Amino acid sequence: MTASSLRGKSAIVGVGTFGLGRAPGLSSMDLMAGATARAVADAGLQLKDIDGICGGTLYHMFPTLSMGEYLGIRPKWACSDMTGGSSFLSHLLQATMAIEAGLCTTVLIAYGSNLKGAGTFGITNCRPSRKSTA
Length: 134
Prior knowledge:
Blueprint: H1 28-42, E1 52-56, H2 63-71, E2 77-79, H3 87-100, E3 107-111, H4 115-118
Parallel strand pairs: 1-2, 1-3
């Protein structure tokens, strides 16, 4: 399998943003969940359709485990590689390879950060607030 053999083998079918800018009282997981809800709706899917997760946060050692638990998803495949600014491009390539290998069919690539609202670089306000994100 080469990068050129993967061309056209996957598609981004839904996009969502949530809490851009300052989002007082919302954790990184709250923001990720809000964006996920919008992306899944944009794709015409439901959370139960997702069987793969890619993502990362600055707060969680195993972000895809935290994401799956928070969203109620039990993925067959997950990737939480962090490669700086190119992480999500890497996630797209790895998700395509996982789909082509038959490891999963529908992959969520998501991120959430409340650094701007927290006012500090660190783990301030990283616990989920469980506020409604709809």
